[in-house]
């Protein structure tokens, strides 16, 4: 079995190295070593209004999902599959259109194509993006722009360009957030729009099959919160595709903060059979909707490791690895509360009365205790039984802010491509600018003292 170089070095007093590789100091009883790699990736040419702030390039963000591909032939290097999300986008004000308000996102590169990449990690040296597979469907490259209003999976958002003009919708738009590979050579991606599960040809990047709520997937999944659809995916040893919804469903717009669980979906590609299970919301979240799940990785057909994150009731950020077991969990398909309402309306007592057992959850690892600082831990992979790989999403290194006005972004609106305040007064001197966040994409290799399934 190949071993991390950090394990070989663990007993030595090594100096802290500069990026792109750093061997981090470790004082955690469950952890033997932590290797940090800053991921090197091609830049995206950007010639927009704020290009000078970025030296004409935006960083490529490849940390929305991660899957271990294997060891490179003839070397000790590790290879991973990774994926971008829908592309560079930033917060922007609500849009007034036809007397209604719509959430919006600003897309500085509106034609960006969500892309699968291969990462190569040369141990104790560097992590680099290699082969790139832009996603295609129905004979054309897709984009990450929102789906048309009313379409299955539409988020209700309006995409805006930098001049605050509405962008065309993309009926094939996809916002990938997880990636896994099966033994037949297929890649499985999940997204936040639909939420969709898609099967992708690993040689061409062509989407061969798309599962959607009401079309291969349970219709109730359409109640996902906007931008909180599927966030992680894995393939079990028996070939089942298991996806996890980032947060609680918002059934009828009423359950996001009260639901006691988020949904886990198991798809059997061979038969099309689907089962659902519940991931319990831990007590430290004051509102259930504050919990955000990241990636999921199979340890067996019923046991999984999951990234769980979000701010707790004391506003402290959590980035945790949990272990869940579905062996005794209740399959949720077709079940409701005693009064016929969706299970998301039920408290713990009502769920128990309905015979619902959620997944058994235990905390395995507090990433913040290891020095993790990124808000979005979004990719998780199992390299060896006692070694994890973790990657963050840096949102293409951008954020947004208001220039030329003292108003906050949330206090402004867009009407006919112009900014105005809630009273309808135009803010002609104001604009929404994108600014560098300076956050890098980091891949961590975490070597444990014992196999992950044996924690905590």
Q: State the oligomer.
A: single chain
Distance between the termini: 23 Å
Give the number of DSSP strands. Answer: 33
Helix percent band: under 10%
Mean pLDDT: 94
Ranges with pLDDT <50 over ≥5 residues? 1-18
CATH hierarchy, class of the domain at 34-71 and 176-394 and 439-454: Mainly Beta
InterPro entries: Phytase-like_dom, WD40/YVTN_repeat-like_dom_sf
Organism: Vogesella fluminis
Protein name: Phytase-like domain-containing protein
Keywords: Signal
Account of the protein in words:
By secondary structure, this protein is mostly beta strands. 2% of the residues lie in helices and 43% in strands. It is built from 2 helices and 33 strands. Strands 1, 2, 5, 6, 9, 10, 27, 28 and 33 form a 9-stranded mixed sheet that branches. A 5-stranded mixed sheet has the order 13-8-7-30-31, with no helix packed on it. Strands 14-15-16-17-18 form a 5-stranded mixed sheet, with no helix packed on it. The longest helix has 6 residues, at 348-353. The model is unreliable at 1-18 (pLDDT under 50).
């Amino acid at each position: 079995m190949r071993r991390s170089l950090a394990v070989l070095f663990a007993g030595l007093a090594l100096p802290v190295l500069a990026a792109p590789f750093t061997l981090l100091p470790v004082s955690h009883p469950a952890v033997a070593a932590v290797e940090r790699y800053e991921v090197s990736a091609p830049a995206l040419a950007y010639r927009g209004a704020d290009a000078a702030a970025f030296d004409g390039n935006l960083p490529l963000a490849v940390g929305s999902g991660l899957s271990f591909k294997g060891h490179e032939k003839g070397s000790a290097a590790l290879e991973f599959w990774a994926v971008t999300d829908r592309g560079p986008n930033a917060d922007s004000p609500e849009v007034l259109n036809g007397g209604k308000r719509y959430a919006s996102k600003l897309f500085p590169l509106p034609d960006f194509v969500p892309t699968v990449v291969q990462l190569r990690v040369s141990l104790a040296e560097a992590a680099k993006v290699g082969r790139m597979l832009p996603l295609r469907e129905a004979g054309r490259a897709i984009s990450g722009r929102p789906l048309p209003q009313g379409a299955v999976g539409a988020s209700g958002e309006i995409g805006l360009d930098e001049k605050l003009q509405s962008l065309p919708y993309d009926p094939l738009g996809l916002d990938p957030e997880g990636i896994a590979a099966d033994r037949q050579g297929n890649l499985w991606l999940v997204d936040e729009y639909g939420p969709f599960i898609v099967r992708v040809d690993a040689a061409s990047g062509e989407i061969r099959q798309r599962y959607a709520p009401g079309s291969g997937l349970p219709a109730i999944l359409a109640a996902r919160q906007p931008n909180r659809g599927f966030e992680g995916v894995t393939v079990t040893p028996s070939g089942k595709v298991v996806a996890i919804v980032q947060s609680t469903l918002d059934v009828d717009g009423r359950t996001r903060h009260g639901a006691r669980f988020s949904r886990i979906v198991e798809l059997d590609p061979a038969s099309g059979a689907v089962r659902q299970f519940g991931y319990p919301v831990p007590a430290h979240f004051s509102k259930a909707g504050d919990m955000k799940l990241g990636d999921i990785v199979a340890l067996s057909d019923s046991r999984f490791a999951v990234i769980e994150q979000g701010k707790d009731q004391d506003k402290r950020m959590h980035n945790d690895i949990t272990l869940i077991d579905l062996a005794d969990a209740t399959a949720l398909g077709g079940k409701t509360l005693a009064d016929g309402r969706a299970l998301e309306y039920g408290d713990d007592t009502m769920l128990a009365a309905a015979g619902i057992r959620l997944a058994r959850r235990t905390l395995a690892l507090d990433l913040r205790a290891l020095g993790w600082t990124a808000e979005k831990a979004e990719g998780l992979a199992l390299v060896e039984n006692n070694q994890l790989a973790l990657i963050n999403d840096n949102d293409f290194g951008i954020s947004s802010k208001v220039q030329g006005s003292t108003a906050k972004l949330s206090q402004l609106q867009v009407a006919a491509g112009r900014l105005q305040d809630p009273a309808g007064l135009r803010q002609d001197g104001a604009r929404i600018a994108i600014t560098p966040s300076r956050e890098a994409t980091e891949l961590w290799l975490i070597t444990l003292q014992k196999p992950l399934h044996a924690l905590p």
